[in-house]
Design brief:
The protein is α/β, with parallel strands linked by helices. It has 11 helices and 15 strands.
């Protein structure tokens, strides 16, 4: 499952290129609780087809009713001056209840009518090429400007302009094609990650069964180098085999990957760190970004439960959350006095 923004923009591009009238809605402001964060987008085709979301569904239903019924068919056409429009939902308690917003929730949308097909095509092209792009729209004329961005930024809205940053999809590189990797890859795809799985062992790679993933057979350190992890990438080693995991992790630590981790018991992870320090000239400082045992503590034992714990930690790090020590696997096991020699595949 690809990045949701790219999915929305690609559908909107195709509708407009096909001559359809269409609408793009962007969540601009929220007050109190809201179902979708600021910057979320959705696209609405003249037929009533919707891609993306700005709420739990009720606001989408209202937009469909307002802009696609026969009596309102012309409403989707671009306004004469090309200007987008703001609309608020959930201002009163009755409206919040009607539109399914949480108690006290209010959100404001910017509606763009018939966005320019050429500008959409260029934006999608840049995103598919791995670019990070700021899309700015003049609120008076509806004119769109695309500029390269160096880092993701929050949506900005002034009286004259709205600027929203779109980035390429997040990527996950998994070392090892075992059972737990299949669960983790599936969850990662549902969370919008593009997943690459590396395993030179045919006996593992041959049984891989997760559609939509890229599977490669080269040595993991070479794959990491070719993968070129960036700030929207994570690398997770799951083989338990030092010949496969260690060199790949060393390559990943030279990158900007936001998350680098390895599966294993506390004893195995301590042994890995000692190997990397003794034989590969690493230091505690150079290994500070290496996470292990990976995952948050949820008492997980089975492969799917462990995958849930790992995915939860990846998402927390991606979202900039500092996890409390009570969720750190090694810390909890130490507090409980659990022996470090436990199974290498149990992280929770």
């Amino acid at each position: 499952m690809e990045n949701l923004d790219v999915t929305v923009l690609r559908a909107l591009r195709d509708w407009r290129a096909g001559g359809h009238h269409a609408l793009m809605a962007t969540v601009v402001r929220t007050w109190g609780s809201s179902p979708r964060p600021v910057g979320s987008i959705m696209a609405l085709d003249q037929s009533g087809a919707v891609i993306g979301s700005v709420s739990g569904g009720c606001i989408e239903d209202d937009l469909i009713a307002r802009y696609t019924h026969a009596a309102a068919a012309d409403a989707l056409k671009a306004a004469p001056d090309g200007a987008p429009q703001f609309v608020k939902y959930g201002i009163s308690a009755d409206e919040a209840h009607r539109f399914g917003l949480p108690c006290g929730g209010t959100l404001e949308l910017l509606l763009e009518f018939d966005p320019d097909a050429a500008a959409l095509a260029e934006l999608v092209r840049l995103l598919e090429a791995g670019g990070l792009v700021q899309r700015s729209i003049d609120l008076r004329s509806g004119q769109v400007r695309l500029t390269p961005a160096n880092a993701p930024t929050a949506l900005r809205c002034s009286d004259a302009e709205l600027a929203n940053t779109f980035g390429p999809e997040y990527r996950m590189l998994i070392i090892g094609a075992g059972q737990m990797s299949e669960y983790l890859a599936t969850m990662a795809q549902f969370c919008g990650f593009s997943v690459t799985v590396c395993d030179p062992r045919e006996e593992y790679r041959g049984g891989w069964s997760v559609p939509g993933t890229r599977v490669v057979a080269d040595m993991p350190d070479d794959v990491v180098t070719a993968f070129q992890p960036d700030r929207r990438s994570c690398v997770i080693a799951l083989t338990h085999d030092p010949k496969l995991d260690d060199l790949a992790l060393l390559e990943a630590l030279q990158s900007d990957a936001f998350y680098i981790g390895a599966l294993g018991s506390r004893r195995n992870n301590d042994a890995r760190r000692r190997r990397l320090i003794e034989h590969f000239d690493q230091t505690e400082d150079s290994l500070a970004r290496l996470r292990g045992p990976v995952g948050i503590y949820i008492g997980s034992k089975t492969p799917p439960e462990i995958a849930v714990s790992v995915m939860a930690e990846v998402l927390a790090v991606k979202n900039g959350l500092a996890l409390p020590s009570e969720l750190n696997v090694a810390h909890v096991k130490d507090q409980q006095g659990v022996a470090g020699a436990g199974s290498a595949c149990v992280v929770g």
